[in-house]
Amino acid sequence: MKINREYKATLFSELFSKPQQLRELYNALAGTNYDNETPIEINTLENVFFNDLKNDVSFTIDGKYVVLLEHQSTVNSNMPLRCLMYIARVYEKITAERAIYQEKQLSIPIPEFIVLYNGVKPFPKEKILRLSESYITDDKITDKPVSLDLSVRVLNINPGYNDELMQKSVTLNDYSVFIDHVRQKQHGGSSLYEAVKEAISWGMNRGILGTFLMEHGSEVSSMLMTEFNIDIAKEVWQEEAREDAYEEFKDQLAEKDAELADKDAEIARMEALIKELQAKIE
Fold first, then answer.
1. Residue of higher predicted confidence among 50 and 212
2. Residue 143's pLDDT is what?
3. Which of 37, 168, 176, 201 would you call most buried, defined as having the most Cβ atoms within 10 angstroms of its Cβ?
4. pTM of the predicted structure, to 2 decimals
């Protein structure tokens, strides 16, 4: 397996790269009240599987839960499958190499899979994606139990959604508000560069990610410029793919249309002939 060595941080992953922020976020997501003494072990695999800018954040809290967290501007329907592959590697990482061959049952932390969505396309407040939804169906067997399933919780973190969650996590709320401000500036006619630059100044003046922006202002600008440009590139790639598919099948569709037109003409000719014969009989 080729490992991606060119790991690129995102604003989201940098904001939640410390145990304190991860503890705050998990408490907000899970409704728990873990204090600062609760151990957090970060075990992110740094984009081992996915050659994508937006990386996963993986951590173990209190030795009981292993949490795979990802933020996306476009929801990937294959997240359950990706999470399955990822969690297997995380368990491999946190488990002693020879321990699985022992007769004694191992105790492993409970997995949780969460996607935080902040894209521009309409999306519900919360949605569950399941691995079993990807399985090939067998019409002959309808009541066979599923041997393996995995659920991914997708939460919309755009302003106006999940307000209760935002109230519990200052960092997540600031991130959401900050990204929304960049987009509003773009919609108002600002270039991406101008929007990011203004948002950084706006955030520092109003205490939105204030300390983080003062310490990492230039890095934030670079990260956001890259992230937003990647999102634009993905939209272009998808549009090109649709156009390529249309071009590929356009000739075939034209041939089918011609065949249908010929058949319609033949049917009309036969109907006219039948009417002519009926008139002669009468």
1. 212
2. 75
3. 176
4. 0.74
In the chain, the amino acid numbered 175 is: Y
CA 169 to CA 91: how far, in whole Å?
28
Q: What is the pLDDT of residue 193?
A: 83
Q: Which of 191, 187, 273, 271 is nearest to 224 (CA)?
A: 191
CA 127 → CA 79, 146, 153, distances in Å?
12, 21, 6
- Burial class of 219 by CB neighbour count within 10 A (0 to 12, 13 to 18, 19+): middle
Where do the structural domains in the chain lie, given as residue ranges?
Answer: 11-281
Percent of the chain with pLDDT over 70: 79
- Alpha carbon distances (Å) from 180 to 16, 26, 54: 18, 22, 18
Cα distance between the two ends of the chain: 81
Alpha-carbon distance 91 to 60, whole Å? 11
Q: How far is CA 186 from CA 67, 83, 140, in A?
A: 34, 33, 53
